[in-house]
Fold this protein.
Amino acid sequence: MHDQAQRYARQMILPGFGDTAQARLRTAKVAVVGAGGLGSPVLYYLAAAGVGHITLIDGDRVALSNLHRQILFETADVTHFKAEAAQQSLNDLNPDCEVSSITQMLDDKNATALLQGHDLVLDTSDRVATRLAVNRACVTLSLPLVSAAVAGWHGQVYYFTGQPCYACLYPDIEPGTDDTACSEAGILGSTAGIVGSWQALWALQLLAQVGTVSPGNMLILDANAAQMRHVKIERNPSCSVCS
Ligand SMILES: [Zn+2]
């Protein structure tokens, strides 16, 4: 307990935080879909802050072209499963955090089974089909979802609890669209770092019950213009997922 008090000392002295918020993080069960450019800061900051249980879902393997932004991984991890390499990095960072790794791609068939039983879902994936499947499962299971996307100089972070949902925002998006393919748009690692850090911040505020993030919040980053703006997402009354 003494070690834990030291490890989390700087966040526990935040106004409104303290033992109660730290205990909420310790008992939290969080699912993180994707261990890439967004997943790296998300997973590191959640584990570092003392989130007790993290389920990490990613069926990809580490490639050399990932390393400039996916800072969970080292050169020696290339060709290894991301979920397993990330689990090792998180265990090294904070042994208090229990991490389960699933080396499987989430899709419509397995999403509900993989996500149920968690308190919060974080979508850090870079595929539209995955994001739609995560959103559908979260609406079905009534799970809160913090989703994010990044490509080029642009990023978004969203928080949903049922209505509105991700599909309200993008009613016509096709599952095959890869709107955030970093291989096409390019990206600087630190841009993914900003967006993923914001996603982690919202998750920690929600789990610890501090701060003011509310459902339907959306943050839009233009890193090239050094601008960030906040938008309130409206419910779509004809949404095929949440209405
Ligand atoms: Zn909806």
The pocket of zinc ion is lined by residues 164-165, 167-168, 236, 239, 241-242 (CB under 6 Å). The chain is about 35% helix and 20% strand. Residues 84 and 101 are 6 Å apart (CA to CA). Strands lie at 29-33, 53-57, 98-102, 120-123, 145-151, 154-160, 217-222, 227-232.
